C-alpha cells in the first residue's frame, strides 16, 4: 500500500478527478478525509469532511496564518477526529494539501500521523505548492503522480494500482 500525492498544474481539475474517484469507491470503501471546493472569491475555498459533508468551512487563504487558524479553530476537533488513525478506515483522501495545514499546527501534525500510518492515503497538491509539503516528503515514502503526465481517463485506474500494488 502506498501514499500518493497527485500533483496538478494550477487549475487543472484535480478536485474533479478526486471527487469522481471518491464517488466510485465510497460505496465499497470507508473513506475519510476532506475535500475542497474553490469558491468564486479569490483565495477562498470551502473544506468539507468526507464522512460529514454538512461540516464545512469557508476559508480565506489570502489571510495571515493566525487568521486562517482562527477561521478553522471552531472546527479543528472535527477535522482531527476525521483524520484519526484509530478508527476503521480503508483510505484517507486529502484534497488540496499545502495550504491550510501550514497555518494550523494541529492539523499539520495529524496529517503527518495519517501519512505515517499503515492506511493508504491519496493527497492532492497544486504543483506550485509541492515545496510546502517537504515536511512529509523528506520523512515518508510518497509516490508523486504528476497529472500532466497521465491521461485523465487513466487516473482512477492508476491510483488503484498504486495503492494496492497491482
From TrEMBL:
Superkingdom in the source lineage: Bacteria
The protein's name: Uncharacterized protein
Source organism of the structure: Caldithrix abyssi DSM 13497
